[in-house]
Amino acid sequence: MKTSEVIEKEKKYLMSTYSRPPFVLDYGKGCYVWDKEGKKYLDLIGGIGSCLIGHGNKGLATVIQKQSQKMITPTNLYYSEPQVFLAEKLVKISGLGHVFFSNSGTEANECAIKLARKATKRSNIITVRFGFHGRTFGSLAGTWDEKYKKDFGPHVPGFTIVPENDLVAVENSITDQTAAVLIEPIQGEAGVKFFDKQYLHSLRDLCTKKGILLILDEVQSGNGRTGTFFAYQQYGILPDIVTVAKGLANGIPIGATIAKKELNFSQGLHGSTFGGNPLACSAALYVMNMVEKKNLMKNASIMGNYFVAQLRNIRSPFITEIRGMGLMIGVELTKEGKEIVQQCADQGLLINCAHKQTLRFLPSLIITKKEINKAIAILRKVLV
Ligand SMILES: Cc1ncc(COP(=O)(O)O)c(C=O)c1O
């Protein structure tokens, strides 16, 4: 099919939820993707951070093929070996106690919210301004930006959104009905925004002191992207619950809610038909093994620092701030970034814009200096 035909069919047969550029991506290899016309792009958005070990990975394809021939899912009515192996790995790496598997980030957060309400027998969840937690009703209620929420009310009650980096605001919002604080340690959709380290420490202490749970949403910052498997490991705190998704299985849908052992459901109280299926879990196991074996967290850290240093050398009149941890990087602009994203795509570089004025980079953890240099050359052309 021609590009124009795909675009026509999309308009005709799909709901209008996405605004897409006028090309059709067809295949990928490593950090590169090609469209149907054969144009090659350096992909620095990597499936919004879900393409952890690169496109077209042959080893992963083999694992997926073998597992799909063996069995895609027995469903959660039955035990499954890849599921328990993956859970064991996530528990060991997180320092927490056990796991519930779902299929996406928003579901992982729904599970965390339900678990917090069930475990504390309290209903209120405090979230933070600019935070994004997903588009299903619970996660949406905790999401800040009205653009995602308007037209869908009434929203799930019991959510309070407080200003960022403001511990007093959290303290003042705590009532005898507060179950948890839900927060991204690094706010991704907000444009890669960081909290003060001291704030996150004090927040952990406050939650402990008040007997409420700290839930960290690491759907975007997790899976090794920041240089450690979870960003919280660099902040020296331990949550009661953490959620991950996106890159865990390199784009095969999966979400995981990892919690302290004492936080639990009773049988039948929560569930998912597809969550933790052997196909997704064996893919995730392969991805986690590759991240370890190829030292990709270290690479994320080294390449992230290199990328930020090169970005700082661009000296563009449009750049006001550059923020990053590992390969989660945001460049704050004086103007909307839409046009810049388009100009980069024209020159063969895929990036995206979060929160209108922030260019966001979430490349695969396998990225090299050579690829970063190539991206910088294009960005310099577009931004200076
Ligand atoms: C921090 C965070 N939480 C939750 C979500 C929702 O994830 P999903 O789109 O997989 O439902 C996202 C997606 O961007 C996210 O960045």
Write up what this structure looks like.
The structure is a single chain. The protein is an alpha/beta fold and 384 residues long. The chain folds into 2 domains: 3-53 and 295-383, Aspartate Aminotransferase, domain 1; 59-293, Type I PLP-dependent aspartate aminotransferase-like (Major domain) (Aspartate Aminotransferase, domain 2, 3-Layer(aba) Sandwich), CATH 3.40.640.10. It is 39% helix and 19% strand. The protein is built from 14 helices and 17 strands. The strands form 4 sheets. A 7-stranded mixed sheet has the order 4-12-11-10-7-5-6, sandwiched between helices. The radius of gyration is 21 Å and the shape is globular. The mean pLDDT is 98.
Describe the secondary structure blueprint for this structure:
Blueprint: H1 3-13, E1 25-29, E2 32-35, E3 40-43, H2 46-49, H3 58-70, H4 81-94, E4 98-102, H5 105-120, E5 124-128, H6 137-142, H7 146-149, E6 159-162, H8 167-173, E7 178-183, E8 186-187, E9 193-194, H9 197-210, E10 213-217, H10 232-235, E11 241-244, E12 255-259, H11 278-293, H12 296-312, E13 319-325, E14 328-333, H13 338-346, E15 349-350, E16 352-354, E17 358-361, H14 369-383
Parallel strand pairs: 3-15, 5-6, 5-7, 7-10, 10-11
Antiparallel strand pairs: 1-2, 2-3, 4-12, 8-9, 11-12, 13-14, 14-17, 16-17
Helix pairs in contact: 3-11, 4-11, 12-14
The chain binds pyridoxal-5'-phosphate (PLP).
Overall pLDDT:
98
How much strand content do the residues show?
15-25%
CATH topology of the largest domain: Aspartate Aminotransferase, domain 2
Any idea how many domains? 2
The helical percent reads 25-40%
